[in-house]
What does this fold into?
Amino acid sequence: MKKLERFCPLCGTKEILHGNTLCSACAALKAGFAFKDIVVTICACCGKFLLRHKWVESETVEGAVASIALEKIKCEIKHYEIKHEEYPRLEILPRIPDKTINPGLDSEFNIDVSVGEERYSVPATIRGTVCPYCSKQETPYFEGVLQLRNPTRELLSYVRKDIAENQSRGIFISKEIQQPDGVDFQISSNKYLRALGKRLQVRFMGEFKESPRLFTRSRQTSKDVYRLSVYFRLRPYAIGQVVKKGEREIKITSIGKRVHGSDRKTGKKVFLE
It folds into this structure.
């Protein structure tokens, strides 16, 4: 005997669980379990997702889906006498399809939701895209320039590693320009560049200068847009090093905005720079 397919009388779907007369989504709506369209927009490059008009990091796709679902689902089940502190807790279990997230492609799936003893399944969509941060990579876009002078391998390695560790925040080098006495890095963020320059000054005890320059005016905000230049020159000295200045031998005692030392013969304090 041919098995009869069970259709939901409200939406026409065949997905009716055993013992139910409606599909899970329609049963949820009828019980007062309201939900808006659940569309989870995820960057296919870095994995960030769009939450309240901001790009937010998430360790897993499931975490991103749960965050959006909690924003979109509202429980108004009538047979609960609900006070605010007794509001039934929603438990979200996404059933995400085993597919690669690609820009411009949508993947439909269901989310299992438990509230109290009630369990429902609601439809959702994962929308692949590229976030504004990732879309700027591999482009000439930059906000500021880090000008390194007299850099050592240690200094260059530190800068490249720090930028790589902040890549998920949209930090990247758009171009490297070799100079006779160093290198210029065109960097995507002025805010990050300013903080990096201050860290270099503390860690490597070099000469540090900032110089913002008016670049353009934003059409959206009508505010001036500046490009920042951060100059960092690594001084060729080390604390304890003995250098000659004319006929005198100077022992380096401290390196800050200026290089301090003491005359080895007289003991007097002197400035080298």
In short: The mean pLDDT is 77. DSSP finds five helices and 17 strands in the chain.
